[in-house]
């Protein structure tokens, strides 16, 4: 035997684990960003007035 491990050999070194998936992306629910008056989606969840119609947040 030449000393090189083949797939399935018990002496084979384990493969590196796959890289971790990056975290982030869109939130699951954007309800806290919707204007109750016109339905526009706001840039931030903590908006005080709608950027489209100017209505205060309820």
Automatic annotation (TrEMBL):
Region Disordered: start-end pairs: 1-26
UniProt protein name: Uncharacterized protein
Origin species: Streptomyces malaysiensis
